[in-house]
Amino acid sequence: MDQKREHKPHCLILPYPSQGHINPLIQFSKRLAHKGITITFAVPQDVLTSSSAADISASIAVETISDGYNSAAARADADPREYLVTFKKEGTESTSRLIEKLREGRGRAVDCVVYDAFLPWGLAVAKSKGLFGAAFFTQASSVNVVYYNVFKGLLKVPVTERETVLPGLPSLAVSDLPSFVVDQEKYPGVLELLVGQFDGVEDSDFVFVNSVYELEEKANEWMKKSMSIQTIGPAIPSIYLDKRIQHDKNYGLSLFKPDDICMRWLQQRSPKSVIYVSFGSIAKLEKHEMEELATALKLTGKHFLWVVRSSEVSKLPENFTDEASGKGLIVSWCSQLEVLAHDAIGCFVTHCGWNSTLEALSLGVPMVGVPWWSDQATNAKFVMDVWKMGVRAYPDDGGVVGHEELVRCVNCVMEGERAEEMRENARKWKELAKGAVNEGGSSDRNIQQFVSTLMGVTL
Ligand code: UDX
């Protein structure tokens, strides 16, 4: 065999170090690995030590780089602007060193850096080493349309008009827009980060989006006029979608420890009877918001499984855990995909983080959207009005999503007049998601094209 053919193409993957970014990039990595690409996944040291690296996958090597911070807590407390400046400096140096180290290992030289769009300096590192650079967007294409219009100066912020009309999107009310486009004051620096995702992207050799082409066709079509985006989603473990690949029920590199009791508890519940509640890895609810949610769950009279991260537990109403026992189970983290895939789940009360939204959509679970910040309101808008597989719970005049509204939404999704229609739509999107990643589907073709390009270079 030709000596060169022994060298498999090699991608270095650079995720932003939070759960909602690590998950889709790991799954994308696994898909690439399955198609014959060597993968090195690079994260700060504490991400590695706070998770079980062993569970990531035998096909993926993990290495460390530095973001200049050494714990999730320090990262969370940091001023976003300072954090990004430090990460850019430390990340550029440590990633460059890593690429050199990998070059020295026989057959391990990196061909392409796949960088999270939150870390646009990844492209400069790739180019300085003469490598391909591929941007990876972890949010929906529709949300990209909004941020790209801000980036281009076509959408002035803060937005105050009642309705915003953007190409490829339905008309958006203020409450449907990503939160930072409306209010930058509360979290200074975050909008810069989000809009900065497009810095230099036109020089990237590839631009990937964790979405399904047909799911956001108009937004994708419009984005394609400006850059050659390729949808590769849903980036969720293949076992749920693509029966050819039988490995891994979870993403790997979980920053939280799942409570195993969930699956045993769900096993005892009847089909479509349980409300699953989770607000992802970042959202911090106010105490009164937790109280409204707790009251609503009690009032529905249904079984519920509620993920309350340990940092949030103190906000639960007193004695709620005891009172809820029997009907409800509260855990600090679960294996969300296994939960969503379980027959017993009837609806998902979610903050509409993009991963959670795509996961529910891919597993056919109707949603009640209770967006907290960022892109979540826009995702909730699509869940309700475009994909019609759920409803959004709206806040009252005081800005709080009250228990009556929550009960109304849960009932609407689980047993209301439109419940069957939503379930039917959910089944439709599940099939669409499956079709996209199965052989020859839109996402599979895009991934294959990327792999073939890399193979062409190195063979
Ligand atoms: C964030 C943003 O909120 C989101 O909108 C953005 O697009 C990506 O990053 P996060 O808030 O954590 O992420 O929410 P989400 O995007 O839903 O990601 C959470 C991930 O954690 C999901 O993949 C979900 O499956 C997983 N999870 C959550 C668990 O595995 N177990 C849990 O108990 C809760």
TrEMBL record:
GO molecular function: quercetin 3-O-glucosyltransferase activity; quercetin 7-O-glucosyltransferase activity; UDP-D-glucose:delphinidin 3-O-glucosyl-5-O-caffeoylglucoside -O-beta-D-glucosyltransferase activity
Catalytic activity field: an anthocyanidin 3-O-beta-D-glucoside + UDP-alpha-D-glucose = an anthocyanidin 3,5-di-O-beta-D-glucoside + UDP + 2 H(+)
Pathway stated in the Swiss-Prot or TrEMBL entry: Pigment biosynthesis; anthocyanin biosynthesis
Keyword presence, Nucleus: no
Sorted UniProt keywords: Glycosyltransferase, Signal, Transferase
EC number(s) per entry: 2.4.1.-
Record keyword Oxidoreductase present: no
Class of enzymatic activity (EC top level): transferase
Family: Belongs to the UDP-glycosyltransferase family.
Function, as annotated: Catalyzes the glucosylation at the O-5 position of anthocyanidin 3-glucosides to form anthocyanidin 3,5-di-O-glucosides using UDP-glucose as sugar donor. Anthocyanidin 3,5-di-O-glucosides are molecules that are responsible for pigmentation. Also acts on anthocyanidin 3-O-(6-O-malonylglucoside). Much less active with hydroxycinnamoylglucose derivatives. No activity in the absence of the 3-O-glucoside group.
Protein name (Swiss-Prot/TrEMBL): Glycosyltransferase
